[in-house]
Give the backbone structure.
Amino acid sequence: MYEFKYQRPTSVRQAINMLAKDPDAKLLAGGHSLLPAMKLRLAQPKHLVDLRKVSSLSGIKEDGGTLVIGAMTTHYQVESSQAVKSKCPMLAAVAAQIGDPMVRNMGTIGGSLAHADPAADYPAAIIALGAEMVAEGPKGKRTIKADDFFKGLLTTALAEDEILTEVRVPAMAGKTGAAYMKFPHPASRFAVVGVAAVLSVEGGKVGKASVAVTGAGTKAVRAKGVEAAITGKAADAASIQAAAEKAAEGVDVQADLQGSVEYKSHLVRVFAKRAMEAAAAAVK
Ligand SMILES: Cc1cc2nc3c(=O)[nH]c(=O)nc-3n(C[C@H](O)[C@H](O)[C@H](O)COP(=O)(O)OP(=O)(O)OC[C@H]3O[C@@H](n4cnc5c(N)ncnc54)[C@H](O)[C@@H]3O)c2cc1C
């Protein structure tokens, strides 16, 4: 028998108050990471605050050159949004690769980012795209850059009493292409390794490169070795191949059930090459 208190706020303010009043309270979004953890008794919250009735947290808006995605927006809504497809097609493609239709219809972008599973897909994309997370708590609202958001295994910069309310993703600039490539686990589709690349190309050369890796270690990280290696180089197959050789440099690759450090480092190089090739091909 598993007993817990269950509350369904209808506003962010109500949810913040519920969290503030009870240190044992935990947020519930799509439930597709938390409920499996509860079934395995890896998490045993005494109080669940379900965000599904907080309508202000769902949906996608455009604010100037920024896509504003509510934390409770499902993976399917991200995948099928015309705004996301036109302003940031890579993010729609990432959402479409998550799990299976059930997971994509229930799981939320905010739940995925707050959970910070080391094999989740969004984190690499969010870092490479230079997104920002908006958090709200008893002390008010603050913005956290994606580079500063993931702190370690299942750990983020969010405080216990904060709610991730929205994800702000800059629309793709001109002469820029982006792609995400992953080696999916054959059962869950989680990324054994996934690489997101955003390349700006002018006159055949890479002006700016933003590359991030998920699945390799305990958290998603920026791949600084490959970014430095491709910047200023020709956006062609030879330069991309040479730069991809540096993709695991500076990434704290960890062995796990999926493979050894050598194997996963190899996957980082292979998927960095594929992601950069696809990003270069997508430049408009
Ligand atoms: C079979 C299966 C396959 C999957 N495959 C993939 C995959 O291929 N790729 C992938 O990336 N993911 C995959 N997932 C995970 C899935 O994407 C989850 O939906 C996601 O990780 C968590 O989102 P959720 O909305 O379900 O969050 P929940 O499970 O409800 O919550 C997760 C955690 O985040 C916290 N939280 C939720 N919302 C907020 C918020 N707004 N602010 C602060 N904290 C919050 C909760 O308290 C909890 O600790 C898979 C899951 C399953 C069950």
In short: The chain is about 35% helix and 25% strand.
